[in-house]
Amino acid sequence: MNVDNTGKFTFRLENDEGEVEVEGEINGKSEIPFFDDLKFKAVIGLLNSIDKKNFSDSGNHQVFKYFIREIEETIHEMKKYDQFQGKLK
Q1: Chain centroid, CA 13 distance in Å
Q2: Contacts of 6 (CB under 8 A, 6+ apart)
Q3: CA–CA dist 80, 60 (Å, integer)
Q4: Record's superkingdom (predicted)?
Q5: For residue 83, what pLDDT is reported?
Q6: Residues whose CB falls within 8 Å of the CB of residue 28, separated by 6 or more in sequence, listed in order
Q7: Which of 47, 63, 74, 80 has the highest local Cβ count within 10 Å?
Q8: Is this prediction's pTM over 0.70?
């Protein structure tokens, strides 16, 4: 019997006003329930596509620093708990 581990995960990020900031879909092979390994691969792929120079060239280096801090804080929180679904406001 051949098992297909290909999955699709759709995501959406809204701001505090409920407006969509980003949404997308991830497709690929997954070995972990709820596609958590696939999500990590997508995050790593997206991070590897970011060019810090674009922030500096556009005069928005502070935006780069803001997002780096958000990523670091999120990873720190993820490591503390077995289940993590983001910040509750």
Answers
A1: 10
A2: 27, 28, 29, 30
A3: 31
A4: Bacteria
A5: 83
A6: 6, 7, 38, 41, 42
A7: 74
A8: yes
Query: pLDDT of 15-36, one tens digit each?
Result: 999 999 999 999 999 999 889 9
- Measured between alpha carbons, how far is 23 from 38 in angstroms, rounded to an integer? 16
Which tokens go with 40? 């990590």
Print pLDDT tens along the chain (89 aa).
455 688 899 999 999 999 999 999 999 999 998 899 999 999 999 999 999 999 999 999 999 999 999 999 999 988 888 886 665 44
- Where are the strands (E) in 1-89, listed by range? 6-14, 20-29
What does the block give as tokens for 70?
């958000």
CB atoms under 10 Å from CB of 30, counted, come to: 19
Cβ neighbours of residue 26 closer than 8 Å, sequence gap 6 or more: 8, 9, 10, 11, 35, 38, 39, 42
